[in-house]
Amino acid sequence: MNLQLVRVEARLWDWSALHTLTGDASFVPDSMIELVSQASEDDAMNYYWDIENSVFVQGRLFEAAEATVSLAMAALACDPPSHVKPVLFEVIFQIVSGVAHEDVLERGDLDLEGRCKGIVERGAWILEREALRKNGGQALDILERLGTDRARVDALRDPGR
């Protein structure tokens, strides 16, 4: 798998300036690259937990969620191995389902959720591609969470109809 797109996307963000529950987000690009480089889903989940326990925690998003979801979408665009996709889908789903943590709101960032969803919406074609593949249910779940048109989701769910 060529990770060049993920590396390019990672360079577009100032990770040390982005907050997580545990401090700055400098570790996120390396964790994401490691996540998509693993030989098994279980190994990829070890890196998922690094992200989940700091970028989003119990449905609460920290400032780094926006940049993290952009990396996850870039990784998905690279067509990673099938055992990694469920983990990427989980990162994306958790972020588009989350709400801003109180600390984020107190800093005056009232649109973090909207920006995160916007990144995923702009890459919806990637999710649509995945929805048409074997085990595309998680991609459909994300599209539904985004509020994608019901007729479109139904057509993706049953493309032969």
How would you characterize the overall build of this protein?
Helix 1 (4-11) packs antiparallel against helix 4 (65-77) and helix 4 (65-77) packs antiparallel against helix 5. The mean pLDDT is 96. The chain has 161 residues and is mainly alpha-helical. The protein has helices at 4-11, 28-37, 41-52, 65-77, 85-97, 102-106, 112-122, 124-131, 137-146, 150-157; strands at 19-20, 23-24, 56-57, 60-61, 99-100. It starts with a helix and ends with a helix. The strands form two sheets. It has a three-stranded mixed sheet. It has a two-stranded antiparallel sheet with strand order 1-2. It is globular. It has ten helices and five strands. Strand 1 (19-20) and strand 2 form a beta hairpin.
Q: What are its keywords?
A:
three-stranded mixed β-sheet; mainly alpha; 161 residues
Topology diagram in text:
Layout: H1 4-11, E1 19-20, E2 23-24, H2 28-37, H3 41-52, E3 56-57, E4 60-61, H4 65-77, H5 85-97, E5 99-100, H6 102-106, H7 112-122, H8 124-131, H9 137-146, H10 150-157
Parallel strand pairs: 4-5
Antiparallel strand pairs: 1-2, 3-4
